[in-house]
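User: quick one
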Amino acid sequence: MEASILQIALIFIVTFIAAIDQFDFLESLYQPIVTGAVIGMILGDLQTGLVVGGTYQLMTIGNMPIGGAQPPNAVIGGIMAAIFACSLNMEPNVAVAAAIPFALLGQYGVTLFFTLRAPLLEQFRSAAVSADPKQVTLWTVISEIVLGLIFAVIVTLFFIGGQAFGQQIVDAIPEWLNIGLSASGGMMRFVGFAILLKIMMNRDMWAFFFMGFGLACIISAIPALATPALLILAFIGFGIAFWDFQQQTELKGALADGGDMEDGI
Amino acid sequence: MASNEFVVPERYEDLTPAPQVDQATLNRMALRSCFLQSSFNYETMQSGGWLFAMLPGLEKVHTNKRDLAASMYHNLDFINTHPFLVTFVMGIVLSLEQNKVDTQTIRAVRISAASPLGGIGDALFWLTLVPITAGITSNMAIQCNAAAPIIFLVVFNIAQFALRFGLMNWAYKLGTTAIDSLTANMQSFTRAASIMGVFIVGCLTVTMGGTQINLTIPNGTTRSLAAHTVVVSNADAKNFTDLEGIDTESAEAGAIAMTDTSDKALTAADAEGNPVETGVVDLGNGMSSVTYAEVTESPVEFSVADTLDTVLPKLVPLCLVLLLYFLFAKHNFTPIMGIGLMLAIGILGSGLGIWPSIW
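Assistant: Done. Structure below.
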C-alpha cells in the first residue's frame, strides 16, 4: 500500500504525542487500544485498527511499567502492529507478533535515552542556581520535544522503510554495547541513592540504613510481598522513626518539666 | 558546561512563614504534575519534572531570590514516586516550604513520602484499574466497537485527575495543620525524618538494585554413571555381559560397562536421577532387558552470582551505593562523575566485545 504524504505526517504527529504521553500528560493516550484505533483511522481501516489495538492491549496488560521497570515499549509496538495490519494486510495476531521486535527495540531505546538524558540535569541545576523558573520550563519543553521527535522519526522511518529495515537496525547494534549500556542504565540510580545518603547521613544513621537494607532483603525474598514491599517497609521505617521522635521529644520534655509532661503531637 | 556546585544552606534566609497558597496555584501545580517525568533520567529520575510541577508554589512561597534558588536546587534531589499520586508529596512539601522548615528536613520528608507511593500507585493503577478497564474495553474493541477506546480514556482519566487534585488539596491542608506541632520539635523531627529517609534508601538499594555479576568460572568436570535400559535378543545380551569391567574413576567418557574391575554390578543414575543396578533380566520370550552404565563427564561451572548471594543478597548494589557515597562524601565527586563511573563500569563489564560479558 502506498502511503500518502498526509498519512505519513499524521503518523508522525500521533507517534510524537503518544511518545510524550507514555510518561507524562494523560498517560493513557499511548495505550495500544487508543493508538490502534487512531492509526486504523489514519490508514482508512478503523475496524482492523480496533481489533489490533485490543489484541495488543490484552497482551500488554500484564506488562506494565511496574516498579520503574521498562516493559517492551507499548508505543512503538502498538503503533507498528496497527501499521502492519492496516497497510500490509497482516492478520491482527500476526501483526501483533511482528511488532514485538519493534517494541523491544523501543524498550532498548528508552533505556538508552534515560541514561543519556542524565546530563540534562545540569541545565536544571544551573536554572536553580540562578533562581530562573523560565529556564526550567524551557528545558522541560525541550526535553519533551526531543523524546517525541526521536520516537516519531523512528516510527515514521519504519512506516516508510518497512519490516526489513527494522531488523537491520537491530542487527547493527553490537551486543557488547547493548549489554554494557543496559547494565550502566541499571546502575545509574545508585548515583541518586548515594547523593541522598550524603545529604541525610551522619554517624549514628548508618544502623538505620543497614536495617532498611536487611529488612528489604527479607521482604523481597517473599514473592507474595513483592509488589507492596516498599509500602510494608515504609510502615516499619515509619514506626522506627516515630518511636525515635517520641523518645527524643519525651527526653526533652522530661528535662524541661521534671518528667511530668504529656506528649501531644 | 558551567559548574553548578551549589551549597544548599541549612536554613532559608527569610524564616517568616509565607501566607497560605491560593487555590489557583494549587490547581496549577496539580496540572503541572502531569509532566512529572518530562525529564526522567536514571540519575535523579523524576527530579526535573518534580521541580517544574512545584515551581508555581515555590515562587509564591519564596519571595527572597536566594531562598528560591536554594529551594529550587534541593528540589532537584533524586525522586521516584508514582506519577498519579505525586501530588500528595507535593502538598506536604509545599506546606513545609511555606513554613521555611530546615532544608535537610524537607529533603528527608520528600524522599520518605515519595518512595512508598510507587508501590501503592502500581497496585492501584497498573495492577487494578488498567487491567479491569483495558481488559473490558479491549474485548469490546476486538468486536469492532469504536466506543471502546473512548470509554477507556474517560474512566482512566476521571480516576487519574480526581486523585491528582484531591491529594494535592488534602496533603497541603494536612501539612499546614500538622506543621505547628512539628516545628516545636524541629530537631527531633529532622532526626526522625532522616532516620526514615536513610531506612528507605537502604530498602531501595534492595528493591530497585538489579545489578548482578553474571560471571561463571569453569570449575573442572564431574563424572557420573548414566543408566540405559534396552531390550535385546538373548544372543545380543551376551555381548553386554561379556563387556569388560571398568574402573569408574579413570574410564573415558562414553565408555559403557556392566561391571566394575572386581566384577561387581555398577550402580548408575537413570533419567530421573534414581540409582539403578546394572544387570540382565531374561524376559522369557527370547528377549532380555539389559541395563548398562555409561560413563558421562559434564563440566561444572562456578557462578559468582550464586556465591555472592550466599554471602549477602544484593551485595553488588550495596557495594556500588557505598562506593558512590564514599566518593561523593569524601572525594568531592560530582553527580556527572558518578554517572561517568557507572558508564565505564558497565561498558568495561560488558567487555568492549573483547572478553566475555560479566553483566
